[in-house]
Amino acid sequence: MYESIENELDLIQRALVREEDACKRLIGLYKGRVFSYVYRIIRNYDDAEEIALDTFVRCFKSLDSFDQTKTFSTWLFAIAHNLTVDFLRKRKQEYEYLDETHASQEDFIQEYEKREQLESIEKALTKLEIIDREIVVLFYTEDKSYQEISEILDIPKTTIKTRLHRARLRLRDLVRKNV
Q: Above 80 in pLDDT, residue 92?
């Protein structure tokens, strides 16, 4: 469960003075989401774990530069984004998307069809441009707003809207063609 904004700001204030418990609680609140975001982009568990850790190291080193009128998670995801891009530049890897699927209590046929559809979407996502994949992941998986994605990727909000719209159309066409 997410902390309230007041609790989060209190944790940030306490983390600024290097209070260990506050730092641990901030990590606890966001480590899963940051790891999941990075993993979905690079698809390597160990590298994603390292980047997630580096995200928190960089976060705490530069916490005093965090603008508390902004959303902490957006700022944190911007750090994760930058570290992921740096990693990919160094390794010259392509972005890939991996969707988490969880077993449900639906009958076998529905589950099979659902998995096939997710696999089709996942496969189609790998055909998108790198930046479009990242926008789709941030919007649909991390529930980030256009404004937050704009801040994370340092791209104008109108560009985010346009790219997301085009990515949706391209995904629809790719899924229909079963690429």
A: no
Q: Which residue, 29, 37, 35, 31, is CA-closest to 7?
A: 29
The conformation of residue 70, written as its DSSP 8-state character, comes to S
Q: How far apart are CA 45 and CA 148, in angstroms?
A: 26
* Last-in-domain residue among 69, 93, 117: 93
Q: Which two tokens stand for residue 22?
A: 């506050």
From CA 117, how far away is CA 31, in angstroms rounded? Answer: 29
Burial class of 21 by CB neighbour count within 10 A (0 to 12, 13 to 18, 19+): exposed
Query: Do residues 88 and 127 touch, judged by C-beta distance below 8 A?
Result: no
The domain of 81 spans 1-93
- What the block records as the tokens of 57 is 């190291």
Model confidence pTM above 0.85? no
**End-to-end Cα distance, the chain:** 38
